[in-house]
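Figure 2 data, in text form.
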Amino acid sequence: MLNRYRDEFDRMKDHSALFLYETVIDREHRRKGCALAAPERLYEEGRVANVDVAALHVFDRDAAAVSLYDRHGFHVERTEPGHVLMAKSL
């Protein structure tokens, strides 16, 4: 499985990165900016620690999430069946 990501690892080897693994927002708090407020704090900590890149996976069927992260500076690095890898510079 790691061979699938060899190109990505090679591209990132000169960078430090943080990976946003999971964001879960309770239904009553959705559409209020919470999905971006928490990661922004993480990005600030990353910048202080000289991290270059933030990355995350979203399900390809979740167009709202792809659009949300796109509007906030992430770009699509790679797509695979079922998910999209997105990243942004810090």
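Caption note: The first helix runs from residue 6 to 12.
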